[in-house]
Amino acid sequence: MNATIENKSIPVLPTGEGPVGTKAWKQVVARYQQPSRWRAVWQLANTLVPYAALWYLMYVCVAVSYWLVVPLAILAGGFMVRLFIIHHDCGHGSFFKSRRANDIWGFITGVLTLTPYQHWRWEHATHHATSGDLDRRGVGDIWTLTVQEYLASSRWKRLSYRLVRNPVVLFVIGPLYMFLIKYRIPGAKAGRRERLSVYWTNLAILGMAVGLSLVFGLKAYLVIQLTAMMVAGSVGVWLFYVQHQFEGVYWQRHREWDYLAAALQGSSFYKLPGVLQWFSGNIGFHHIHHLSARIPNYNLERCHKAEPLFQTVPPVTFFASLKSFNLRLWDEQRQKLVGFDVLGSRKPSQ
């Protein structure tokens, strides 16, 4: 394990035993990896019941005015984010102790969030195994080029990259494309189980859409579903972006890549106001989540507070996170994310 990370010493345990080793932090996180059936059931209840109630209220309001429906659909989008966090935990096998329960509720919440459970689980596992590794980018992450790669790219690739990294595309158009179109088609390398997951999810979504269209009317259903999906998708992609694209983030070539550093410095501690933390299912404690994906979301905050090592991770506040809008490229020379403005003085040979 590397002795230093970006010229900063790895924090020491309170016992004074020296640099934190694998055994030490694994012993800490192990205490919080046990799922709680009752906490999981309560989280399902306080998410699904209000979400269903919002759909009923929208059904009542749709005959009066769309001006009453749209704010409710926006709020429903917030609950979709929370549903996705439950889906995410099921994919990691951490929400319930039972694998069968995780798979059942992962599929259900996947249908409600338009996400194929097994297919998404497969891609997301790759993200966890490669996060912060410059030599293993490209699956389950946001397209990120180094400065040198960008300068060596063709004009069309540069244009494509700038387009993809444009905030409107990244946080508005991109999420809609991903959840409405991309997730409807299995990946080229997907296995049989993952492909079937896509097909069964598509069938269930079609059934849900037909049923709700018969109740609400097609126009009203589309307005509600697309509004909620736009809010949930944009918020979800923004959360994922800030969790791995922030000032001081860790990226290294594979030969120098370190798991502990990738978790504690390559994943942010996104400190959100209480209400936003609730809707986002504590996923702001992303450094803890990347240390151990087996910790359910309802245990992340307790784990963070239990160990001084984890509290050495500097928080990224909501307003500070807005600076991430301008971070576009990884500068290997300076070991930091930079904006396009640095390109004026750089040449491909540098």
Nutshell version of this structure?
This protein is mainly alpha-helical and 350 residues long.
Question: Can you give keywords for this protein?
Answer:
5% strand, 350 residues, 58% helix, mainly alpha, globular
Secondary-structure topology with pairs:
Layout: E1 4-5, E2 8-9, H1 22-30, H2 37-61, H3 66-91, H4 99-112, H5 117-130, E3 145-146, H6 147-152, H7 155-164, H8 167-180, H9 192-216, H10 218-244, H11 259-264, E4 269-271, H12 274-279, H13 286-291, H14 300-306, H15 308-311, E5 315-317, H16 318-321, E6 329-331, E7 336-338
Parallel strand pairs: 3-6, 4-5
Antiparallel strand pairs: 1-2, 6-7
Helix pairs in contact: 2-3, 3-4, 3-10, 4-9, 5-9, 8-10, 9-10
How would you sum up this structure, described in words?
This protein has 350 residues and is mainly α. The protein has one domain. It has helices at residues 22-30, 37-61, 66-91, 99-112, 117-130, 147-152, 155-164, 167-180, 192-216, 218-244, 259-264, 274-279, 286-291, 300-306, 308-311, 318-321, and strands at residues 4-5, 8-9, 145-146, 269-271, 315-317, 329-331, 336-338. The strands form three sheets. A three-stranded mixed sheet has the order 3-6-7. Strands 1-2 form a two-stranded antiparallel sheet. β1 (4-5) and β2 form a beta hairpin.
